[in-house]
Amino acid sequence: MRIRMRHRGTRTSTAMIGLAGAVVLLLTAVIAPLLWSGRATVPDTDHLLEGMSARHLLGTDGLGRDVFYRVMVATRTSLSLALLSAVSGAVGGVLLGALSTLLGRRAQRLFSSLLAIWLSFPDLLLVMFLSVIVGVGGGGAVVAVAIAFAPSFARLAQTLSSSVVTRDYISAVRLMGLSRTRILVRHVLPNVAEPLILNTTFAIGGALLFLSGLSFLGLGVQPPAYDWGQLLAQGLDSIYVSPLAALAPGVAIVVAGVVPIFCGEALAALAGRRHVSTRKAARSTAASEVQCPELTAVGNHLLDVEGLRVAVPADDGMAEVVRNFDLRLSKGEMVGVVGESGSGKSMSAMAVAGLQPPTAEIRAKTFSVGGTDPRRLRPGPARRLYARSLGMIFQDPMSSLNPLMAVGAQLSEGVRIHRSLSRSAARQLAARRLAQVRIPHAEQRLGERPHQLSGGMRQRAMIAMSLMCEPDLIIADEPTTALDVTIQREIMKLLADANSDGVTVVLISHDISLILDVCERVVVMYAGRIVEELAARDVTTAARHPYTRALLRSVPTMTTDRQLPLATIPGRPPTRNDETAGCPFAPRCERASESCTETMPPLERTGPGARVACWHPVPTTTSARGVMAR
Description:
Blueprint: H1 2-41, H2 67-100, H3 105-119, H4 123-134, H5 138-165, H6 168-175, H7 180-188, H8 193-217, H9 228-236, H10 244-272, E1 303-314, E2 317-329, E3 334-338, H11 345-352, E4 361-363, E5 366-369, H12 379-389, E6 390-393, H13 407-419, H14 423-436, H15 442-445, H16 455-467, E7 473-477, H17 485-500, E8 504-509, H18 512-518, E9 521-526, E10 529-535, H19 539-542, H20 546-553, H21 594-598, E11 604-607, E12 610-612, H22 624-629
């Protein structure tokens, strides 16, 4: 504790020094030209190259001008040019780098290649080259420094943003239909602000040094204007007679270059506090419930996907992680998708919701959401289609909410965009949704941040967010992961309540017993394929695929012999590199034959609402429940 307090005290002292230095520099830049501009520019031939005196604190230069006044007056020019060039380079680079993470795969590759070429040139040489190309003078120097600084900020922003855009809360706001610009400004950049601010303050010091160097070489500020670099060049001509004429601007450059670094630590720490406005919610909650337009299902199918394939980049090209995924959903259904980790459950769901990684490639024979193919829509209408028809609940409730934003702001953001609601109306609707998912003191919770809620409350808040626009379909991807049994039961009860209100629910889980308890239909996936589909009530008696039976055996029941070891599935699921022409489950299947390793079994219908992909399905006379008991 003592060490931590000492470290905190050191950071506070550094911040105070930086803040005091910044105030002094800014006051000097504002006041000095007003007070001493005339004295700094008028030659005095009677006092050439004089030393320190009461009249001239730092002596005079070769034309008799007061060195102290000239250094003070040059503060405005030097600082303004340094700030302008550094901030311009930082803003331009950050926007380029952050926007690149929202581009497609090919555009990202092109941008990264151009950025690598840009960064291969040394900054100083690039600044000198650009200053000659753009034009000699202060304006050209600013443009040259900004262009030279931009690629380093672009690379930093690209790296930081890439780690943010994969978070679940970014997927959540994408599903709400937010534009790329809004996602970038409200959800990506605030979460990477701390290192960017710190690097910007470092860049101010570097820009001051580069600009002074250009002026020293005659490429920067041109007479009669002057900055510290030009004063340093003039002072070197008489350094042996009047050394202070060169020493004073040099010291000013060093001091002014260090102060922003100290200030940067304070600003970065302030950004790290993740300040969120705590404005009180409107006290009145008597506004009427706001409805979002409901999309009409065509052919009684809210979702119709056939032949879905998802491929992601691999070492030797593109690897398919989802193959021939078919799913039709009608209004009011509750369907479970079950399988081991890596079976393609979540990737299929993300592709259905339009949230696949930007580097992924998607193909499908049929893709319809609410009777509309989103692939045929422009980005804006496609976002509105997903936002109004589909809600998503993610695995990790902590990463599903933006840590910088209040819960109420996150819930109300989507309906404010798509329904043009006022802030107070959207907030009232958010309070209603939180109350609907049984979060106590809903009005108070609206102003809290995610870390102030428990894991169960965060997951309930995610359910409330998915219900904000009353979608027809909710996809719940492992919604009970890392929650205790009591909270799991409450979360499943909330999903069942939404389903009873007519909302179609797709529940993704690796726990087949959970799926059987709440779902009407079960889809079993393995290695990116659907291997079996049947009614939940028939799973324990009519499951025919050996993998489905193995999942059932791995779940202990009240009749399981506790003297025997728990049943497991031998082997491991295949990886992307384990491509095979036959059934991917064959290496782990006790019923496999030679034909299983040579040819992929088709997914064939075996009865009403039942399909199986297996060359040697288990006879229906064998009880799966009995196998579980053994």
